[in-house]
Design brief:
Blueprint (H helix, E strand, L loop, with lengths): L1 H59 L54 E12 L5 E10 L4 E9 L3 E15 L2 E12 L4 E6 L8 H6 L2 E6 L3 E12 L3 E8 L5 E12 L1
Antiparallel strand pairs: 1-2, 1-10, 3-4, 4-5, 5-8, 6-7, 9-10
């Protein structure tokens, strides 16, 4: 029993001494660290004041006199760019320059391979006499032209003409566009007697009455010129013109008919 007490006492003493030794070592370490921090702060303050003094001393020290810049060699002036060439002179424009000619018109389309019969009926009415009719016909292809030239010569009248020009075109729907021209010389209507008296100074009055001579006289000749453009229906005639004689009561009418020949 006593032995156990002694062992426990020895262990307690050993633990107590170890704890004290550890506490002492820790205290020594803390003291050493504080001492080192104090020494470092002192050294830093000393270094800062030394640097400030050195900077103040450097500011008060005389500055060296600046050296003169090296003399530069003069350079020649730059060469100016070459002058642009003068603009080329334009040739004088002619004041009377003619404009370019217009383009030629497109060619006319070819007509259909169809013939058209053109009929003209001329009716010559003189007063109350029976009307005289003349019929002229010509067959022309589509979009082509045809003409008739009829002339006669009569003594005392001269040339009597009957001319017809026709140019038909089929425009569809059974219709035909027709351009035609007509020249018609109407001959005189006849002769009527008229008394011709000699001059009164050439013979006595009795002889002058016996010398009266009756000679035939003619009515004036009528000339008709027509140029028309019509739209006709196939196979139907229309009254195209009706002309009046400027001197007599003669009237001349023209009927036109166009028929497509299939």
């Amino acid at each position: 029993m006593l032995r156990r007490i002694l062992v426990l006492s020895a262990l307690f003493a050993l633990v107590t001494s170890s704890t004290f030794a550890a506490s002492s070592a820790a205290a020594r370490l803390v003291t050493a660290g504080a001492r080192e921090r104090t020494q470092a702060g002192t050294n830093e303050a000393t270094a800062h004041s030394s640097s400030n003094g050195a900077a103040h001393q450097s500011d008060q020290s005389p500055q060296p006199f600046p050296q003169p810049a090296a003399q530069l060699t003069p350079q020649p002036p730059p060469t100016p760019p070459p002058a642009p060439p003068p603009p080329a002179k334009e040739a004088p424009k002619s004041a009377t320059k003619a404009p370019p000619p217009p383009p030629p018109p497109p060619p006319e389309p070819m007509g259909q391979p169809i013939n058209i019969k053109i009929e003209l009926t001329i009716t010559d009415q003189r007063g109350g006499a029976a009307p005289a009719k003349k019929t002229v016909s010509v067959i022309v292809a589509d979009r082509s032209s045809g003409l008739i030239r009829s002339e006669s010569f009569s003594t005392g009248i001269g040339n009597v003409q009957l001319h017809v020009d026709a140019e038909p075109r089929i425009i569809g729907d059974g219709k035909i566009r027709l351009r035609f021209g007509l020249t018609y010389d109407s001959p005189p209507s006849g002769e009527s007697p008229r008394a011709i008296e000699p001059p009164a100074s050439d013979m006595p009055a009795a002889a002058s009455a016996a010398a009266k001579v009756a000679i035939p006289t003619r009515a004036p000749q009528t000339q008709i010129r027509e140029n028309l453009a019509l739209v006709l229906e196939n196979g139907k005639s229309i009254l195209a013109t009706q002309s009046a004689d400027p001197v007599s009561d003669r009237q001349v009418t023209v009927e036109v008919k166009a028929t497509i020949l299939r």
